Amino acid sequence: MPNITIIGGGLAGCEAAYQLASRGIKVKLYEMKPLRRSPAHNTDLLAELVCSNSLRSDRLQNAVGLLKEELRRLGSFVMGIADETRVPAGGALAVDREGFSRRITEEINTHPHIEVIHEEVENIPQGNVIIATGPLTDGKLMDEINDLTGGSLHFYDAAAPIVTFESIDMDKAFFASRYDRGNDYLNCAMDREQYFAFVHELISAQTAPLHSFETPRVFEGCMPVEVMAKRGEMTLAFGPLKPVGIDDPHSDKKPFAIVQLRRDDTEGRLYNIVGFQTNLKFSEQKRVFSMIPGLENACFVRYGVMHRNSFINSPGLLDIGYRLKSKPEIHFAGQLTGVEGYVESVASGYTAAISAYAAINGKTMIDFTKKTAIGALSHYVSEYAGSDFQPMNVTFGIMDPFDERIRKKQERYTAISKRSLDILGDIISKIDSFSEKNSHSEAY
């Protein structure tokens, strides 16, 4: 039986492992937990969700919604578990954080073709390898990756705090989603005076030291809330605290700002403060965030943290299958490649697995093309032509434009999504022609 080594048990590594194992490839999956955890991890489970439990929009008029639907149709293992463990989140796909990781861990550990080895890898092994060690890769392995790729780049990422539901004052907070799309979010309304008092304390609060890291470049999609606030006193009111589409049932006045919280588990005991990634000291988080109406006595089960994310300079190094051009037996996957986001990491893991399978079996690599979201992401990572390569969420902007001019944005995005899913049918047929899955994978 052909075999492959996968380093890293995150979302990308687990997706790649399952896709290969279900196609008859023997997988050795290395995961350093529980022997060692990164600064961002809190459990010993595989595929741990760190900064959020949300996999973002589930609508086809949004590029990440399209990417999720593509992955579902491709038979993504991780997306199958995500749908199984989802929790209400309006038009988004959010999951029970621990339940999601636990289910993935169970499936990976019991797959007959996957051997999970809890050991920290310091050197890239010989043979077929997928490196999916994530953005916090460090130590001797990172040194070896640096030597292999000519050096890595890095930026900073941040996570938001989580509070218990029972500690939220429901005489002030209320359930609602924007524009009457359900009641999946908890909302804390602020009037003008409360908002400006909060912003004043936020921008003057003490931040945690970044230790020996270089001057940070922060990814826009995970910008710390205090950094956003310093850009202007109304930045938050037009950003994560925008009050549009929601009425406060406790008041006949329109809210000046709205803080939203999203369910973090199936039972609804934990809530994540949406958009509140932060690098404030823990004591300052408690002090400042308790100024939010309804959170005065909030119990924080996890404070926000900030950490360094590393990625390689993928354009020119990798091909569209995430394969290292200089050493084709090595593939990369996950955020280390410069994809940003959970769903994008899953997509890279799937693509790397299909690419590796093709290479092992002497088949032609599958090009998903820039007319699909999954293909556009791999083309961006491998072919970006600028001098300032940065991590990227999937967007319609990196996909091939629609042939006909459609003025209305939502209609244009709908047409692009339909085209993508039509094309995907032919691509799935090509994949199926050389990679018959065994019965163990039929559930997903």
* Separation, N- and C-terminal Cα atoms: 23 Å
* Integer average pLDDT: 90
Overall 3D form: globular
Share of helix, binned: 25-40%
**What Rg, in angstroms, do the CA atoms define?**
22 Å
Number of strands: 16
CATH topology of the largest domain: FAD/NAD(P)-binding domain
User: What is the annotated CATH architecture of the largest domain?
Assistant: 3-Layer(bba) Sandwich
Number of helices: 11
CATH class of the largest domain: Alpha Beta
- The helix-strand sequence is EHEEHHEEHEEHEEEEHHEEHEEEHHH
Low-confidence stretches: 438-444
What does this structure look like?
The chain is α/β, with parallel strands linked by helices and 444 residues long. The chain contains eleven helices and 16 strands. The protein has a six-stranded antiparallel β-sheet. It is globular and about 65 Å long. The chain folds into two domains: 3-155 and 308-441, FAD/NAD(P)-binding domain, CATH 3.50.50; 162-304, Elongation Factor Tu (Ef-tu), domain 3. The protein starts with a strand and ends in a 10-residue tail after the last helix.
